Amino acid sequence: MAPSDRDVVAALRAELAAIAPARACDRAAETAGLAGGSAGRLGAVARLSLRLARAATASPRAEFDWDASAEHCRLAYLRGLFLAHGSLSLAQARTHLEFVLEPDAAPRLAERLAGLGLPASWRVRRARGVVTWKSAERVGTFLRRIGAGAVLLELEARQVARSVRGDLNRVLNAESANLQRAVAAAGRQLAAIERLEVEGRLAQQSEVVRLVADARRETPESTFAELADRLHVSRSTVQRALERIEWLVLHPDDDLQRRPRIGHEARFDAA
Predict the structure, then answer these.
(1) Can you give the pTM of this predicted structure?
(2) Whether 136 contacts 124, CB under 8 Å
(3) Domain spanning 5-148, CATH class
(4) Domain residue ranges of the chain, discontinuous segments joined by +
(5) Is the pLDDT of residue 94 over 60?
(6) What whole-number distance in Å separates Cα of residue 189 and Cα of residue 246?
(7) Assigned CATH for 169-258
(8) In which region does residue 175 sit, left (phi positive, over 0), alpha (psi from -120 to 50) or beta (all else)?
(9) How far is CA 172 from CA 164, 165, 175, in A?
């Protein structure tokens, strides 16, 4: 059975938590990002915190200096920040990643992310600062830069599959709606043809209208284009003829000259 979205997100966290920074500065940066995280986080994240704590020097850890740090340190810091303060949602085929921080930290983080080419929105929600991405592409870029690998490929594959399914469903829905409209129109046209036939008014119409009516009765499922090919006329000629038939039923007492006209120049190939 395919893993659920929750399982994929948990696997992603475990993959990121398993990264062992080789540089001491990266370890310190990631430790700074993890600071203040929830104690109830994934076990792999708790183990990461302990591993980094054991690897730290005995001297007190200074606050992470973003401006003075190299990019690899910044990415390690962001990895820790995501593991401790971030959440990723894939509900309803939408990708949504957010960091929940102290209110004054949110605009600062948004500015830092923008500096890395990953602009994010931020707001204060229930006295907490929230920095958010709702772009699947931007979320994927961020996760890749902080070290996600195999699980990210799985995540992206699922997103592509969802997108394809969504596109297919939209196409099928559109085709179904078009078919329903075509069936309903054909039903109206057949009913109108039958009524005009019974009243003797169909025989009073032009040859174009009568031939189109006959073709519609013989092949109710045909489209305008198929009827036009069969009769060797233009699609618009077929459409106007069928519109005239319906119009005649709806306006039986109107003067003939006020009714939609079918071009007398339409020609039929008897071959």
Answers:
(1) 0.60
(2) no
(3) alpha beta
(4) 5-148, 169-258
(5) yes
(6) 6
(7) 1.10.10
(8) alpha
(9) 12, 10, 5
